């Protein structure tokens, strides 16, 4: 089987003909216009595109936070578009890890309690959840900060806690929405290296929206969206992605500039 076929059949996440329209008639906006994409297990995919091109909509439809108007979304062979609300909530809790630009940690809980939360919500025993949380915190280099609250941690440390929380359930897909948007470049590099490590060492599957070519260069594949369509794709080798080499950053930035010159929001 060729690669694309393999990804479609064994993919951790498969989107087929995904369309999302907001509003009705004249005021309607076609945010996605039939997107086909399959993410192989243990891969790191970035999504880029001009403002309004549909990146957030794609991410939200991919992980069951929004429902496509048409098309199919499957995570680990499970069709999301036909699921009821409760099943979808459970699938998100068990199969998806989330990392957001604003960290989204609960301020009253310690780092360890924040990381243990998804396991506790899924009904896991306190001690086991705590042990798994400690392990996940150690993985992101924060075992020694387990009892700090978010306000007592730097931005980069908070994002590492969020990453530990995303990893703790060993999800099928990690959905990262501008995970380095609020971080300085050096701290952003640390977080991206950890995301890369999760892919390489734990076999995580990462889907990340970013505006930053330097962040996207850590992915082995970059999808470019314009007007709700996938219009370009960059693929690097895993070796290149591991070092996020300057040539890749330049190539990705050049493709983005081309899109920004031509991509505009379209109302239908
Ligand atoms: N809830 C909504 N109701 C109506 N229109 C929406 C809604 N959400 C998004 N849109 C529209 O859908 C299109 C795609 O939006 P989306 O947020 O996915 O783009 P984006 O690429 O993530 O943009 P940005 O980079 O600015 O965050 C835009 O035209 C946007 O205005």
UniProtKB/TrEMBL annotation:
<keyword id="KW-0813">Transport</keyword>
<dbReference type="InterPro" id="IPR027417">
    <property type="entry name" value="P-loop_NTPase"/>
</dbReference>
<dbReference type="InterPro" id="IPR015854">
    <property type="entry name" value="ABC_transpr_LolD-like"/>
</dbReference>
<dbReference type="InterPro" id="IPR003439">
    <property type="entry name" value="ABC_transporter-like_ATP-bd"/>
</dbReference>
<keyword id="KW-0067">ATP-binding</keyword>
<dbReference type="Pfam" id="PF00005">
    <property type="entry name" value="ABC_tran"/>
</dbReference>
<keyword id="KW-0547">Nucleotide-binding</keyword>
<dbReference type="InterPro" id="IPR003593">
    <property type="entry name" value="AAA+_ATPase"/>
</dbReference>
<dbReference type="InterPro" id="IPR017911">
    <property type="entry name" value="MacB-like_ATP-bd"/>
</dbReference>
<dbReference type="GO" id="GO:0005524">
    <property type="term" value="F:ATP binding"/>
</dbReference>
<dbReference type="InterPro" id="IPR017871">
    <property type="entry name" value="ABC_transporter-like_CS"/>
</dbReference>
<protein>
    <submittedName>
        <fullName>ABC transporter ATP-binding protein</fullName>
    </submittedName>
</protein>
<feature type="domain" description="ABC transporter">
    <location>
        <begin position="13"/>
        <end position="252"/>
    </location>
</feature>
């Amino acid at each position: 089987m060729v690669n694309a076929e393999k990804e479609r059949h064994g993919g951790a996440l498969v989107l087929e003909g995904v369309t999302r329209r907001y509003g009705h008639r004249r005021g309607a906006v076609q945010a996605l216009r039939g997107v086909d994409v399959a993410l192989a297990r243990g891969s790191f995919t970035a999504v880029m595109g001009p403002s309004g091109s549909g990146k957030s909509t794609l991410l939200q439809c991919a992980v069951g936070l929004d429902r496509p108007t048409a098309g199919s979304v499957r995570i680990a062979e499970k069709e999301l578009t036909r699921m009821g609300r409760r099943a979808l909530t459970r699938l998100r809790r068990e199969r998806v890890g989330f990392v957001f630009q604003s960290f989204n940690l609960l301020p009253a809980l310690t780092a360890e309690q924040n990381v243990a939360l998804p396991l506790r919500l899924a009904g896991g025993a306190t001690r086991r959840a705590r042990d798994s949380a400690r392990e996940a915190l150690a993985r992101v280099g924060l075992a020694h900060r387990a009892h700090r609250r978010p306000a007592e941690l730097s931005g980069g440390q908070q994002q590492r806690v969020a990453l530990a929380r995303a990893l703790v359930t060993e999800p099928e897909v990690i959905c990262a929405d501008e995970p380095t948007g609020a971080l300085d470049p050096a701290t952003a590099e640390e977080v991206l290296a950890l995301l890369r490590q999760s892919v390489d060492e734990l076999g995580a599957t990462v889907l990340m929206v970013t505006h930053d070519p330097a962040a996207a260069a850590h992915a082995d594949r970059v999808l470019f969206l314009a007007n709700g369509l996938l219009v370009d794709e960059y693929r690097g080798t895993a070796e290149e992605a591991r070092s996020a080499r300057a040539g890749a950053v330049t190539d990705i930035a050049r493709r983005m500039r081309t899109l920004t010159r031509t991509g505009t929001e379209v109302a239908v």
